[in-house]
Amino acid sequence: MPNAVPTSIDATVELLKGGDYIADRSLATVLFLALKLGRPLFCEGEAGVGKTEIAKVLSQTLGRPLIRLQCYEGLDASSAVYEWNYARQMIEIRLAEAQGVQDRRELESDIFNERFLIRRPLLEALQPHTEGAPILLIDELDRTDEPFEAYLLEVLSDFQVTIPELGTIKAAQKPIVIVTSNRTREIHDALKRRCFYHWVDYPDLKREIEILKVKAPGAGDRLSRQVVGFVQELRKLDLFKAPGVAESIDWATALSELDTLDLDPRSVNDTLGVLLKYQDDIQRLQGTEAAEILHKVKADIAASPLG
């Protein structure tokens, strides 16, 4: 049986925490409202800040199936909504011809029915599910071409799709919809108006340390504080790609696997490829600059009340 949606903002915070997602109150508030009012939630932010994870955690904690539409350039309705099984239709036509069926309308009604319909993620999300209304994740919408957004308007506003040969198919239960974008391009206002909006920002120092305690418990308190302090300093630099929370978790996990208890310049230089994804950024930081940042981080930690 699926779990009920939370009935308060605090309950939403606890729901996410039950899936090891440490959310700030602003995210919990807009998510609570989206769940309560049955509206899609549009999450925008830098890569690696935890937008996609929201849908995964909701699926886990609410006990609902997760249906994911991974967006890419050139995505169209046949890949996202539905297409006809042309091979099976051709076989059906040949069989009908062999049996002497001549009525074209009868043949069309035979081959254009749900037996020959291939449901893609958007249509599948509108179908009844025994586990309850699914979580529909439309991931990285900004990677698609702009015309594809028009396909989504009917889904996001009325939770239905129109198939010319069959008519309109409407969801019996509204899916919980999470749309994400890394903002590599602007999404059209018509789509945004159909959603509640939230900018998922990098966490502050305290919350990111708390995230590492949950997601990378093997790192230990000292290493986690050093990792977060170092990463937060990197985000102030003009890097090609600043590390997200996902990279912080990966780095802390990798360092703990190497039995690192305390960051030093060598361990930083040896593992920068876990934290950074572009060679120009790695070359810039290796050596003196990384050592200076680490020295500042350790000095800040020593001067803090927690020492």
Question: What topology emerges from the helices and strands here?
Answer:
Layout lengths: L8 H10 L6 H13 L3 E4 L6 H12 L3 E5 L6 H4 L1 E3 L1 H13 L5 H8 L5 E3 L1 H4 L10 E5 L8 H11 L1 E4 L3 E4 L5 E6 L7 H4 L3 E4 L5 H11 L5 H14 L10 H13 L7 H11 L3 H7 L2 H16 L4
Parallel strand pairs: 1-8, 1-9, 2-5, 5-8
Antiparallel strand pairs: 3-4, 6-7
Rg from C-alpha positions?
24 Å
Number of strands: 9
Helix content bin: 40-55%
CATH classification, class level of the largest domain: Alpha Beta
CATH superfamily of the largest domain: P-loop containing nucleotide triphosphate hydrolases
Describe the structure.
With 307 residues, this protein is α/β, with parallel strands linked by helices. It folds into three domains: 9-77 and 120-199, P-loop containing nucleotide triphosphate hydrolases (Rossmann fold); 82-114, no CATH class; 205-302. Helix content is 49%, strand content 12%. The protein has 15 helices and nine strands. A hairpin with a 3-residue loop joins strand 6 (160-163) and strand 7.
What is this entry, summarized?
The protein has 307 residues and is of the alpha/beta class. It has helices at residues 9-18, 25-37, 51-62, 77-80, 86-98, 104-111, 121-124, 148-158, 189-192, 205-215, 221-234, 245-257, 265-275, 279-285, 288-303; strands at 41-44, 66-70, 82-84, 117-119, 135-139, 160-163, 167-170, 176-181, 196-199. The longest helix has 16 residues, at 288-303.
